[in-house]
Specification:
4-stranded antiparallel sheet, single chain, globular
Length: about 200
């Protein structure tokens, strides 16, 4: 039942069977239908969630009322609003399922207790946070230094399964371009390939 998350955390640090039992005892397995909002703007994020199966998006609504997608998350990834969760303050973001999704959820109090019981778990979450921050930095850099086509190609190479799972309009939002621009990019790339 916990095989995948166990592999995930033991990549960062070894855990004994007893350690893993303590960890499992603090996780809650939840299933959600497609289009379930897990977090709304103004709420405090009370969870960090490991995705067992499914696809989730994290986004905000801009002043024009449009969704701006910050993250897609699929199997073996985590989803949360880290700032809201760690500081227990209201979120500016939304988190919503794009498919029927199964999550393993840990709440703030459980995570803090586990840090006391399993100090090396803090190292695991620190390493995951560092990786997330690095991805975010690279994305910001790409946004200001790469063309839309380069960003699209990078997205396709980094996340090859996501385009089959989410609408093109949401990929365009993630890339910071219009759906029409994405269609043109895809059409041009197709012509280059076949020409």
């Amino acid at each position: 039942m916990f095989n995948e998350i166990d592999k995930h955390i033991t990549r960062c640090h070894p855990f004994s069977a007893t350690d893993l039992e303590l960890f499992h005892a603090r996780l809650k397995r939840k299933n959600y239908r497609k289009k379930t909002v897990l977090l709304s703007q103004g709420e405090v994020c009370r969870f960090e969630a490991y995705i067992v199966s499914g696809c989730v998006k994290k986004y905000y609504i801009d002043r024009n009322g449009d969704e701006v997608i910050l993250q897609f998350a699929v199997e073996d990834w985590w989803i949360s609003d880290i700032g809201s969760f760690s500081e227990q303050k209201p979120s500016n973001l939304f988190i919503e399922t794009l498919e029927d999704t199964e999550l393993l959820i840990i709440d703030y109090e459980s995570k803090e207790l586990l840090y006391q019981q399993l100090p090396h778990l803090e190292r695991v979450f620190r390493l995951m946070l560092q990786r997330s921050y690095s991805v975010l930095e690279n994305r910001f850099y790409a946004t200001v230094s790469h063309t839309a086509e380069q960003r699209y190609l990078d997205f396709m190479s980094r996340y090859p399964t996501i385009p089959q799972r989410v609408p093109q309009t949401q990929i365009a939002s993630y890339l910071g371009i219009t759906p029409e621009s994405l269609s043109r990019i895809r059409s041009n790339l197709h012509k280059k390939k076949s020409g």
